[in-house]
Design brief:
heterodimer; A: alpha+beta; Heat Shock Protein 90; 6-stranded mixed sheet; B: alpha+beta; Glutaredoxin; 4-stranded mixed sheet; globular
Chain lengths: ~180, ~120
């Protein structure tokens, strides 16, 4: 993975696979503490304590087609390589929370990357899932709550061409404002 | 600056157009988006296809994601399903090739053979 935004896309897909109906993605860039924190919380099926213990092992996966699963190990490694930390909490029937803390100014920290594209991709590909996205840089914050958008849209889908293009611009502009 | 008021206007326009039979999609474009696909560049490919479909107003086309298709070395992979035709698998996609597939294959009905898995292997 070349950027943190790709890890986010990858980990959020796990939430979808776990049949989450709501996924909360938070990015907090705190230059004073010199940290970049990514938190992904879902209300999916959760993991048993047993599975949770070995989930950061690349040779653990739920897929039936092969025996490796690299998403979580790669994310963990990316965070730990920057002097940061990584934790997963999960409970069967309640959901899962993945939290990665990166050393903000560490030389090995991957760029955050194109978060707008990640969020746009998730939101439009999984329309039946609600996403809450919060990205804060210092005291500036961009929030996208698909619940609110769906309220406005009624039964008009995100895949409607005009809606899709609006959403694409809306997210990009919101992210650019943070710089 | 985009505003939520604009979104409301879009909704009203879309409602006037009616034609909202959500499940009535004839063509399916599927992008492999597992760890392997994402690492190889599937995200911009997915968004390029979505954008192209939106710009061309192709209401009969549905773009979806799937997990690992099984040939990670050929990612990003895009599959095109058109009813009554054989599935076409495109490999080693990028944004330019993806847009070409929408215009050539979906709109003009010509399979872009040079990007298919058959041409690669």
């Amino acid at each position: 993975m070349r950027e943190i935004a790709l890890h986010i896309l990858d980990i959020a897909q796990n939430s979808i696979t776990a049949e989450a109906s709501r996924v909360v993605i938070e990015i907090d860039e705190d230059k004073r503490k010199d940290t970049l924190t990514v938190t992904i919380t879902d209300n999916g099926c959760g993991m048993s304590p047993d599975f949770l213990q070995k989930v950061t092992d690349p040779f653990t996966t739920k897929r039936a087609t092969r025996k490796v699963g690299l998403g979580i190990p790669l994310f963990k490694m990316a965070a730990e390589n920057t002097g940061g930390s990584f934790e997963i909490n999960s409970e069967i029937g309640k959901g899962t929370c993945v939290k990665a803390v990166f050393g903000y100014s560490h030389i090995d920290r991957q760029p955050l990357g194109n978060t707008a594209e990640t969020i746009l991709g998730l939101v439009t590909a999984y329309e039946n899932v609600d996403f809450l996205y919060k990205h804060s840089v210092g005291d500036k914050e961009f929030v996208l709550d698909t619940d609110k958008l769906k309220e406005i849209l009624g039964d008009v889908p995100f895949s409607n061409p005009d809606v899709y293009l609006w959403l694409s611009d809306y997210i990009s502009e919101g992210e650019n404002e943070l710089d | 600056m985009k505003s939520l008021a604009e979104l409301e206007a879009i909704r009203n326009k879309a409602k006037a157009n009616v034609n909202l039979r959500k499940d009535d999609h004839a063509v399916r474009i599927v992008v492999g988006m597992a760890t392997c696909g994402i690492a190889a560049g599937a995200r911009p490919v997915m968004n390029a296809i979505m954008e192209e479909v939106a710009k061309r107003n192709l209401e009969h086309v549905m773009v979806t994601q799937t997990g690992c298709i099984g040939v990670c070395r050929l990612e990003p992979i895009v599959e095109v399903y058109i009813p009554g035709e054989e599935k076409v698998t495109y490999v080693k996609m990028d944004t330019k090739k993806a847009a070409e597939i929408v215009s050539e294959h979906i709109v003009n009905g010509r399979v872009v053979s040079k990007y298919t898995i058959g041409a690669e292997q």
